[in-house]
Design brief:
InterPro entries: CD1871A-like. The protein is built from 2 helices and no strands. By secondary structure, it is mainly alpha-helical. It has one domain. The longest helix is centred in the N-terminal third of the chain and has 27 residues.
Length: 50
């Protein structure tokens, strides 16, 4: 039983670390501004302003 919990935690930590690494790489590439601009455009279209 302890072995299953250990495998589960190791997998969880690895996936969290991978997610953080991907967010860091995306931020370094400047993709934050691209996503923010697209979100603003979608919101403006939904409201009917843009």
């Amino acid at each position: 039983m302890y072995r299953n919990i250990f495998k589960s935690r190791v997998l969880s930590v690895a996936l969290v670390a991978l997610g953080v690494a991907m967010m860091y790489i995306g931020a370094q590439r400047g993709e934050v501004l691209i996503v923010l601009n697209k979100a603003i455009k979608v919101c403006m279209e939904c409201i009917g302003i843009g």
